[in-house]
Amino acid sequence: MPLDCILSAVAAWLLIGIAGVAALRRLTLVAHLLFPLGGLAALLLAAGAAWALTQPPQTVVLPLGLPTLPFHFRLDSLSAFFLLVLGATAAGVSVFAAGYFRRGEGTPPGLLCLEYHLFLASMALVLLADDAYAFMVMWETMALSSFFLVIANHRLGEIRRAGYLYLLMAHLGAIAILLCFGVLQANTGNYTFDNLRAQQLGPFAASLAFLLAVVGFGAKGGLLPLHVWLPEAHPAAPSPVSALLSGVMLKTAVYGLVRVTFDLLHTPLWWWGALLLALGLASALMGVVFAAVQVDMKRLLAYSSMENLGLIFAGLGLAALFAAYDMRPMAALALTAALYHAASHATFKSLLFVATGAVLHATHERSLGKLGGLIRFMPWVAWITLLGTLASAGLPPLGGFVSEWLLLQSFLFAPGLPNGFLNMLVPVVAALIALVAALAGYTMVKFFGVIFLGQPREEKLAQARDAGWWERAGMLWLGGLCLLLGLFPAQVLLITNAVTRPLVGAALNTAGHDWLLVPVSLERASYGPVLFLLGAAACVAATFLLVRWRYHGRLSRVPPWDCGHPDLTARMQDTAEGFGQPIRQIFEPFFRMERELPSAFDAAPRYRVSVSDPLWHFLYLPLARAVEALARLVGRLQQGRIAVYLLYSFLTLIAVLLVVRR
Amino acid sequence: MSAFLSQFINLLAAILLLLAFAMLSQRRILSLIHLFTLQGATLAVSTAVVGYATAQPHLYFSAVLTLLLKVILIPLLLHRVIDRLNVRWDLETLINIPTTQLAGIVLVMFAFYLAQPIAQISATIARGTLGIALASVLLSFMMMITRSKAVPQVIGFLAMENGLFFAATAATYGMPMVVELGIALDVLVGILILGVFLFHIREQFDSLDIRHLEKLKED
């Protein structure tokens, strides 16, 4: 049974975690035995999930939890899809982690092992939960275990601050989700998803539930005003953990929103879709623009995650919009695009995050300004990272392209909507998506180019050593997944169709197109990645042979683009700041910049610019100040005199007695 | 049940109330302890009488327990504490005794107002006693508020417990034995802890004036 398969994988994770505590400080044992075992369990989970996609939904009630409130679990195709993403990604990340954790870095390895596997297990159970109680318990376990993973290096104050912010936002989101379930159960007092699904809510209650879900899951998924934790927590965590946070945990937010919007609430209203679309696009644009100006490689990736999640939410919004107007095939297309993007983002973003981990361990540098030329010292890492970079930039024949293609196609169908106002907005929206995709490509060029190409910016980079075999294996697995998602879209669509059919009642047509991606019809916008790859390979081979034939194999290696200048130094090449400068200029209103420009006569000129999030200053800091002022007001009650305190209790007593007398 | 016994309990209740007023206005610590002892004795007698009147032998145990604890043990402890702290002859400056007394009278009226509906439905021997018990609880509470030295506050706390105990026995024929034993033990432990606190306060501030505790407040 698929469900048994998955639950045993989860149990294996928990056991591995406990074994990790037993071998608290024995790094070799933990790293080379327990983490690969965890990877095997992840494969088992993925296999179970893939099996479940072909089966009808299964349920199980585990006698855990409170006496009268057992945990309900249910495995349907939506859960199975996200479990497949979780298992496939976690397998690669776990193998990478086997070679990643080193001695003497904050938390002892055994404890990290426990937190890591608890995190995985709780994510799997969040995806399986079939009642609000189990969902919330697992959701909070996930938040807490990942919080402890984020603060693995808790000796640094900045990391503790990032962890605190993360925990705060996680709780804010959890409260909203709890309230959302409270609205959904409609005073029946029964919190199983079956009951929530059976309720017919009025438009007001349904909208309230939807808004609460957007706030709750948006806080986890980095949706626009609630994204502030994302660029802080991701860089703070160890790289395999960042990979899981960004690759998988953010997807649980997508899962939750899909579950609530399309499954528990039945027919969305049109403005829900419009709202989600607007929020998603705003976060995508904000994320990509900020990613383009970052100078820390992990922060760059974190903002890029925000962008990708924004695109996914926009896709969900569009799907809700189509579903509201009962345009089921279109809704299926948009939902497929969102799910596809979730899957491909999971693979390429975790690949990129573990790659930054490999670079970090080899060079001890996170700042892009001190890296460069690493392709010569770390060829394995560089070439596999290139796969992830291309996928992230949305280039064929990789996974990112397929999902963005599907998303754009679904936007191009939006003019069919029976709402004139929306029809006018759609071209703008499609243009925005194109802008975001282009800027994502720009950002990825910067990411790869500054780290791996050009000349090393520091002397010590020449000592950088390539990643070990464990790390290479993990990265190869993730890179392979990126390729698979890109090359075999028709097969992936079989999976997503199993998800969209029960949710929106339609699916994409895959019959007879094993090698082609056919969003709508064969004549319109179909795409054959394998053909494309063969064509591209043929072009490259032809060029190579042509050049070889033309120049008779006389090759000489010279630095590219040195313009005939005899000695180029590392300081002459473009920097991360320089690369981001045009974006800083064009999108100036998005940023809050502090510049320090040297005067013309300065003997030791220093140039400094710091870019920060304006929302932080306009929204969060005033909010924090208001809370502080309120707290001070309450603090006046604290006089320090016992007589006054006694008077408080005396007056309270008298007031209570008066109430009782009545 | 004879009218004489119920009158006698009413008399004891009146004495209790009178003692509570006396404590509210007493400035000398030593006299305060004497008053407290008297209150305990009244309580013991009233418990015994209620036990006799309602033929509940377990109230005799309560009476003996009260006698041991509140007439002998706790006053003894208090005497030792004030000897060790050297505050036996201390006087306390009180704020405006007539005003406090007037506020006390208002409190007594309030207590009777509160007890009125309960007294009407209850068929126990002494209807007025619940109001008096409540009044002595509130008066002791007010005494705690008006005092600035630590020992009188402790005594106020103990007097409050006396009022509660009186409410339990006279108005409702006593609580189950287990509860009474528990409360007695609580009081004993409470006074031990408070005694330790007194010594610590004294050590820290060279005085038992709790106004010094204001310094502990964080800014």
What does the model show?
The complex is a heterodimer of chains A (about 650) and B (about 220). Chain A contains 22 helices and four strands. With about 650 residues, chain A is mainly α. Chain B has about 220 residues and is mainly α. In chain B, helix 1 packs parallel to helix 5, helix 4 packs antiparallel against helix 5 and helix 5 runs antiparallel to helix 6. Chain B starts with a helix and ends in a 14-residue tail after the last helix. The mean pLDDT of chain B is about 80. At the A-B interface, helix 22 of A face helix 4 and helix 5 of B.
Describe the secondary structure blueprint for this structure.
The complex is a heterodimer of chains A (662) and B (219).
Chain A: H1 2-22, H2 27-52, E1 58-66, E2 69-75, H3 77-100, H4 109-128, H5 132-150, H6 157-184, H7 193-198, H8 203-221, H9 230-236, H10 239-264, H11 270-293, H12 297-324, H13 328-363, H14 379-393, H15 399-412, H16 420-452, H17 469-487, H18 489-504, H19 529-551, H20 576-586, E3 592-596, E4 608-612, H21 614-635, H22 642-661
Helix pairs in contact in A: 1-2, 1-4, 2-3, 2-4, 3-4, 3-10, 3-13, 3-17, 4-5, 4-10, 5-6, 5-10, 6-8, 6-9, 8-10, 9-10, 9-12, 10-12, 10-13, 11-12, 11-16, 12-13, 12-16, 13-14, 13-15, 13-17, 13-18, 14-16, 14-17, 15-16, 15-17
Chain B: H1 3-25, H2 29-54, H3 58-84, H4 97-121, H5 129-146, H6 150-172, H7 177-205
Task: Describe the structure concisely for a colleague.
The complex is a heterodimer of chains A (662) and B (219). Chain A is mainly α and 662 residues long.
DSSP strand tally of chain A = 4
Distance between the termini of chain B: 61 Å
- One letter per element, helices H and strands E, the order of chain A comes to HHEEHHHHHHHHHHHHHHHHHHEEHH
Tell me, rounded to a whole number, the average pLDDT of chain B.
82
Structural class of chain B: mainly alpha
Biggest β-sheet description of chain B: none
Span between termini of chain A:
63 Å
Query: Helical region count of chain B?
Result: 7
Radius of gyration of chain B: 18 Å
Q: Please provide the ordered H/E string of secondary-structure elements of chain B.
A: HHHHHHH
Oligomerization category of the chains in this entry = heterodimer
Strand content of chain B: under 5%
| Weakly predicted, low-confidence segments of chain B | none
Strand order of the largest sheet of chain A: 1-2
Largest sheet of chain A: 2 strands, antiparallel
Overall body shape of chain B: globular
Biggest interface, chains and residues, is: A-B, 15 and 20 residues
